[in-house]
Amino acid sequence: MLQISLWKRVLILAVILAGIIFAAPNAFYNRVEGHNDALLALKKNGAMTPEQQQANSAWPDWLPSDLVNLGLDLRGGAQLLAQVNVADVYKSRVDALWPEFRKALADERATLGAIRRVQADPGILRIRIGNGDQMQKAIEVAQTLNTPVTSLTGVGQKTYAITSEGDQLVIQLSDAEKAATDDRTVQQSLEIVRRRIDAAGTREPSIVREGSDRILIQVPGLKSAQELKELIGTTAKLTFNSVISTTSNPNEAVGAGEEILPSSDQKGLYYVLDTSPVVTGEDLTDARPDTDQNGYPAVGFRFNVSAARTFGDYTQANIGKPFAIVLDNKVISAPVIQSHIAGGSGIITGRFTVKEATDLALLLRAGALPASMTFLEERTIGPELGADSIKAGKLAAAVGAVLVVAFMIASYGLFGFFASIALGINIALIFAIMSVIGGTLTLPGIAGIVLTMGTAVDANVLVFERIREELKIAKKPARAIELGYERAMSAIIDANVTTFLTALILFVLGAGPVRGFAVTFLIGIVTSVFTAIWVTRLFISFWFARKRPKELIL
User: Fold this and answer.
1) 369 vs 67, which has greater pLDDT?
2) Which pLDDT score is estimated for 75?
3) Which UniProt keywords apply (predicted)?
4) What is the CB neighbour count within 10 angstroms for residue 84?
5) Which of 79, 192, 301, 346 could make an S-S bridge to 379, C-beta 3.0–4.6 Å?
């Protein structure tokens, strides 16, 4: 057991060296972070500013640049609790049904008579049937478009609730479909918010679902909650709608299936639009900052294949007519179709600044939020609080390390010194692993590291005490050390397996700060076993091979 084969020695030393190298960037946090931000800017924009070039050169490219991400409580940042207004989706879903049901019912016009949409509450589609006595036939036709709910909880139920009131056919989403839609809407909103924040270059946001319709968003590094709201607060819902007419009266009466929306840049101008869009932002495959024919900032876009065909057919059939580009219920542009627009690409103009065009392209590229969000809680944590937490954490870690080292050296002399060096390597390995996996360090995580420093020497204490017992029964030093490691091994494994299982339960069942503590503690348990069993033994092996002591005082 005392003799370690050459390949094992090389492997242990390689792990130690790799741990130190990958942990080193955290000792130069600001410099490495500036280097990473400069590379991100180069990847996104194709160029770097002079300041970014200077930051990039501050850290060699050939060295690792992975960092442990600092959590909200250490770095400061913004937190929002958002409620997804899931009922918004009901209206858009039902509005989109009208063309489909109109076509199906029109095929039976000889029996049903005239088909006309009438005004109804949001989320309800009402269709007046000319021959009211044929309502049962109308329901049968409508039921042919009714599909099963695509969710586990809605098995055996239909998507639409189809009823009648007098001569009107009433269509709305069924309760099962509403429940499935709510779940999909929140999940989609969560994913889109995540994509928007990640695309903006922020670091390790925490975006989790809370309850049935709420999302908790935490982004370290942002200066204010307002900055976060500006990034994700808009739905960025883009549609291309037919223009029926223009007006200066925002309260002008409109027909069923029509709506009045204001111009975003011309005060007092309103557009009467068909509520059924030709294509939507969900059909976009790309959006990027661009310029128009006059050199002003604009946003270039491209549709997917099917939407490109639809858009091309629409423009071909409506040459000379205006169509509206609608963003978040405002008409940002209403150009006249001059020619057939094939290929599914074009630009959006609207008197943008460069920043506005860039932000709009980002939002459209990330995708439209399926529903608006109401922010129930806003919180900004300043970096000063995080700095105080880091300072306190460093002090706790330093005091803990000094006390542990002093105890080990006082109790076990040279062997305690070897264990103390292994403890430093253990901390380096924790930071190396967290850097490589992109882990986030929080204040509870620091507590986990401090606790790891105390528990990391447990295995060494077990081994050293066992060596003492072997020396008392007149074992020679080499044999005593060998038996000490051999007979303490089962106790070391049992103790660390039980601790590992406890930390694993904390990670699986815990959330937020509890999980942050569990992550660092889990990593610390694994690295402490490695350093206690192999690193400390390697040091003792090197020392023993050189000194060859006849007696061992421990």
Assistant:
1) 67
2) 75
3) Cell membrane, Membrane, Protein transport, Translocation, Transmembrane, Transmembrane helix, Transport
4) 26
5) 79
Sort strands 125-129 and 77-84 into parallel, antiparallel or unpaired: unpaired
What one-letter code names the amino acid at 146? N
Residue 38: what residue type? A
The most confident of the ranges 375-384, 454-463, 527-536 is 527-536
Q: Which residues contact 51 (CB under 8 A, 6 or more apart)?
A: none
Q: What share of the chain is helix, strand, coil (3-state, %, to 5)?
A: 55, 20, 25
Residue of higher predicted confidence among 223 and 434? 434
Closest by Cα among 220, 290, 270, 211 to 68 = 220
Burial of 64: CB neighbours in 10 Å, binned 0-12, 13-18, 19+:
middle
> Where do runs of H (alpha helix) occur along 160-262?
175-199, 225-232
Measured from the Cβ of residue 256, the count of other Cβ atoms closer than 10 Å reads 15
Report how far apart the first and last C-alpha atoms of the chain are (Å, whole number): 19
Q: CB atoms < 10 A from the CB of 339, how many? A: 9
Calculate mean pLDDT across residues 88-106: 82
Residue whose pair of structure tokens reads 């295995």 in the numeric block = 459
Helix H or strand E segment including 273: strand 270-274
Beta bridge partners of 128: 116, 168
The CB density around residue 473, as the number of other CB atoms within 10 Å, is 8
Taking alpha carbons only, the member of 133, 149, 142, 144 closest to residue 171 is 142
* pLDDT per position as a tens digit, 276-307: 888 887 777 777 777 777 878 887 777 787 78
Residue 412 near residue 554, CB atoms below 8 Å: yes
Edge-first strand order for the sheet with 214-220 is 206-210, 214-220, 77-84, 373-381
User: How would you write 394-427 as a 3-class SS string?
Assistant: HHHHHHHHHHHHHHHHHHHHHHHHHHHHHHHHHH
Q: Where are the alpha helices (DSSP H) in 200-254?
A: 225-232
Measured over the CA atoms of residue 316, residue 317, residue 320 and residue 325, the dihedral's sign is negative
Q: Judging by DSSP bridges, how do beta strands 238-247 and 330-333 pair with one another?
A: unpaired
Q: How many helices (H) and strands (E) does the chain have?
A: 18, 19
Residue 200, pLDDT > 60, answer: no
Name the token pair of 100: 């489909």
- pTM of the predicted structure, to 2 decimals: 0.59
Tokens standing for residue 23: 């942990």
Question: By the 8 A CB rule, do 186 and 83 touch?
Answer: no
Amino acid occupying residue 78: A
Q: Which two tokens stand for residue 538?
A: 């390697």
Helix (H) or strand (E) holding 366: helix 354-366
- What is the mean pLDDT of the segment spanning 26-51? 76
Q: What's the half-sphere exposure (Cβ side, CA atoms, 13 Å) at 111?
A: 12
Rounded CA-CA distance 488/473 in Å is: 17
pLDDT tens digits along 331-344: 877 877 777 877 77
